[in-house]
């Protein structure tokens, strides 16, 4: 039998082109393509080069999604906003996605879309809200001590030398003096290494700082920073070198008199300090020129900007027209025009004082799913999306959404404050009915969070 002369085999795409195409797809579509072949499944699930490439493309998206959780808790909506136009928002109703709800539940921080959360002093998870997968961390020894006897720095970061995600935990008690106990545990995005992986707590002798209670790290490009108190009583900013696993003191800004509160955060991919002074709020940014670092004034916002008056603000992100999206008084979302010194309320977000939102990046890091526990409580999230997903598929309903914050479903009280995907300690002011925003850039630019240092104000 003669073969059809018109038949010719379909050409296959070169691996480089295929990799580039897949790396530009949203997470939801990648879930579907995992079933195409073993090659596809391996590529999108475990290939480290693909994960980095996908994160880079995700970082270029110009849409920011804010997840708003209303009262009653059953009403949850995702608002997707174009940061270039700040118009035509789209809302999607969501259901509860996370099954843990305990009084001690807390979001600590995030890195590249992975979230470090705890549901008790001994139970910690790294969770990927984009893939809906999470894995339990091995026991963190520093949390064995009673909370009343010590203070802790905690955070999830990325070691660029070894391409490993690591959790740093540093514990300080009254008996430590100028030292602290530190544990750095590695994880590879698929599983957490057990206690046999040579990670162990050790004493850091040269640590002349006072640590604020349960302070998450502020994540900039995988590196963690904290606001602490120096020996002189002035604020100090310290970072953690994941390669050497040591704390380092960064270049310090000028701590001016008359500032009532300092906030540590990230804006446009750089570390920033928010200084609440007399009459205005000044935002400083850390600029790097080779080996030289310096702090520069980014902008100043008067407490009465336009028709809006406020007491505190948190810068979130830079908009397409050069403005700054901010939250004020943890209740309202505004855009500040730096040149005209005016604030514009983003009216499409509800402001009845019953909603809360944050923003976090999506990530395609594989984590083995181990779903346990029961219903109760509601998690508020936000994500940076390439597009909004409206339908469900398999176990990936709205795969591009990132977890941000937990609230008790019965009282509406705040259970924990995360920054970053990392952010400050649990708030004692009963702000459960107020809005909170924490911005995090997508992809490899990691989080933008504002971590207010208790005891520094």
Automatic annotation (TrEMBL):
Q: How is this protein named in the record?
A: F-box domain-containing protein
Looking up SUPFAM superfamilies in the UniProt record yields:
F-box domain (SSF81383), Galactose oxidase, central domain (SSF50965)
| Record-linked Pfam families | F-box, FBA_1
Boundaries of each F-box domain copy?
7-53
NCBIfam families reported in the protein's UniProt record: F_box_assoc_1
Record-linked InterPro entries: F-box-assoc_dom_typ1, F-box-assoc_interact_dom, F-box-like_dom_sf, F-box_dom, Gal_Oxase/kelch_b-propeller, SCF_F-box_component
The source organism is Rhododendron griersonianum
């Amino acid at each position: 039998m003669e073969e059809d002369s018109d038949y010719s085999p379909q050409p296959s795409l070169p691996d480089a082109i295929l990799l580039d195409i897949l790396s530009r797809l949203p997470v939801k579509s990648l879930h579907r393509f995992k079933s195409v072949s073993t090659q596809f499944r391996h590529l999108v699930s475990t290939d480290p080069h693909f994960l980095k490439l996908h994160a880079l493309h995700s970082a270029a998206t110009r849409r920011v999604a804010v997840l708003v959780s209303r009262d009653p808790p059953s009403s949850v909506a995702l608002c997707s906003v174009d940061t270039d136009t700040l118009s035509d928002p789209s809302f999607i109703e969501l259901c509860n996605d996370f099954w843990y709800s305990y009084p001690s539940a807390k979001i600590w921080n995030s890195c590249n879309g992975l979230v470090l959360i705890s549901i008790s002093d001994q139970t910690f998870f790294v969770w990927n809200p984009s893939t809906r997968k999470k894995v339990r961390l091995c026991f963190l020894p520093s949390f064995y001590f009673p909370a009343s006897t010590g203070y802790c720095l905690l955070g999830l970061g990325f070691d660029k030398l070894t391409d490993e995600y690591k959790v740093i935990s540093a514990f300080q008690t009254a008996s430590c003096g100028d030292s602290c106990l530190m544990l750095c545990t590695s994880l590879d995005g698929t599983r957490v290494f057990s206690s046999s992986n040579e990670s162990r707590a050790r004493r850091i002798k040269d640590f002349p700082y006072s640590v604020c209670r349960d302070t998450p790290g502020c994540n900039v490009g995988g590196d963690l920073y904290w606001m602490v108190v120096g020996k002189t009583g002035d604020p100090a900013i310290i970072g953690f070198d994941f390669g050497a696993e040591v704390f380092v003191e960064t270049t310090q800004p000028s701590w001016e008199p008359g500032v009532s509160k300092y906030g540590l955060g990230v804006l446009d991919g750089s570390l920033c300090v928010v200084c609440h002074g007399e009459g205005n709020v000044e935002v400083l940014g850390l600029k790097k020129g080779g080996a030289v670092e310096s702090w520069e004034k980014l902008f100043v916002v008067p407490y009465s900007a336009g028709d809006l008056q406020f007491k505190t603000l948190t810068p979130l992100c830079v908009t397409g027209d050069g403005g700054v999206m901010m939250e004020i008084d943890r209740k309202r979302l505004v855009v500040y025009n730096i040149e005209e010194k005016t604030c514009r309320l983003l009216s499409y977000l509800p402001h009845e004082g019953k909603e809360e939102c944050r923003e976090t990046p999506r990530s395609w890091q594989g984590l083995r799913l181990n779903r346990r526990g029961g219903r109760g409580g509601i998690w508020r999230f936000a994500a940076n999306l390439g597009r909004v997903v409206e339908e469900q598929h398999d176990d990936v309903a709205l795969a591009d959404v990132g977890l941000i914050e937990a609230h008790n479903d019965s009282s509406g009280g705040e259970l924990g404050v995360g920054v970053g995907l990392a952010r400050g300690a649990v708030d004692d002011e009963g702000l459960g009915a107020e809005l909170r925003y924490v911005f995090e850039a997508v992809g490899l630019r990691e989080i933008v969070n504002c971590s207010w240092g208790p005891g520094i104000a």
